[in-house]
Design brief:
The chain has helices at 15-20, 29-43, 46-60, 70-83, 98-102, 113-121, 197-210, 215-231, 237-247; strands spanning 87-88, 95-96, 125-136, 139-144, 152-156, 171-179, 182-185, 190-191. 43% of the residues lie in helices and 17% in strands. Strands 3, 4, 5, 6, 7 and 8 form a six-stranded antiparallel beta sheet that branches. Among the domains are: 5-121, no CATH class; 194-247, no CATH class. The longest helix is centred in the C-terminal third of the chain and has 17 residues, at 215-231. The protein is an alpha+beta fold. α2 (29-43) packs across α4 (70-83), α7 (197-210) runs parallel beside α9 and α8 runs antiparallel to α9 (237-247).
């Protein structure tokens, strides 16, 4: 397993209490999705979560707890599981993402209004490949490379979040969330090699032109390529991504 949430379920506050103590004003996507994943794992979809973790590693590349980027990949997986992966739940009559099943939790509607609103707004997520146009430590201006119009999007940092280490023209993939009138991102951000920027831009153009893959399949290929580059230090980033491009 990638995550052992069961080891935390018998100590400290209950998951319901942790939700009630969540500070919506901090606007922490990572904390919110961690809590929702833990609840889903404990109450709804333990087997599905384990299967999804194995599937995720197969599709995006294997990673381990001693990897420097382990926490980033875990965050990326959690958002994929909650927001992209369809599941069948006995109390719902259709396939749906686990976040919608969480909204049926017995305690959910009793949460304070501001927390309830923030958690419901997580439905307004968009998973894509982005390029940075402008950056400062608490905000980013980005364009969506997989959209036709490529409109600029202004992303704000959460209370305890900064965008240190991200530079203009960097390319990354993640979910972005529209909360009220602001866009937020979590820490599950896969930052691609700057050396591969030209190749990635061409791949995004080819994807938009041909659409042979779904956007999720394409993003998983890129995540796999980024990991391949990290693992094989002697192989250039452009070579790793070009190999994926030729095999897509």
């Amino acid at each position: 397993m990638l995550l052992d949430v069961k080891s935390n379920s018998d100590v400290g506050p209950s998951i319901e209490a942790r939700f009630k103590n969540f500070t919506a004003a901090d606007r922490s996507i990572s904390e919110a999705t961690d809590l929702i994943y833990t609840w889903c794992f404990e109450h709804l979809a333990q087997e599905s979560a384990i299967n999804a973790q194995q599937e995720f590693q197969h599709l995006t590349g294997k990673f381990f707890s001693d990897d420097d980027f382990y926490k980033v990949r875990i965050k990326y997986f959690i958002e994929y599981f909650l927001l992209d992966r369809l599941e069948k739940f006995s109390f719902l009559n259709h396939l749906t993402c686990p976040v919608y099943a969480f909204y049926q939790a017995p305690f959910f509607k009793s949460l304070p209004k501001e927390i309830l609103h923030f958690l419901l707004e997580l439905r307004n997520s968009h998973h894509s490949l982005f390029q940075v146009v402008n950056v400062n430590p608490k905000s980013l201006e980005i364009i969506d490379l997989l959209s036709e119009n490529r409109n600029k999007i202004s992303v704000q940092a959460a209370k305890n979040q900064t965008f240190d280490g991200i530079e203009k023209a960097d390319i990354f993939q993640c979910h972005i969330f529209k909360i009220d009138h602001s866009y937020l991102i979590s820490d599950g951000l896969i930052l691609h090699s700057r050396k591969a920027a030209k190749t990635l831009l061409q791949m995004a153009l080819d994807f938009n032109t041909n659409r042979r893959l779904t956007s999720l399949q394409f993003l998983f290929q890129l995540a796999n390529g980024q990991l391949m580059m990290v693992r094989r230090l002697s192989v250039s980033a452009s070579y790793a991504y070009q190999a994926l491009k030729l095999n897509s």
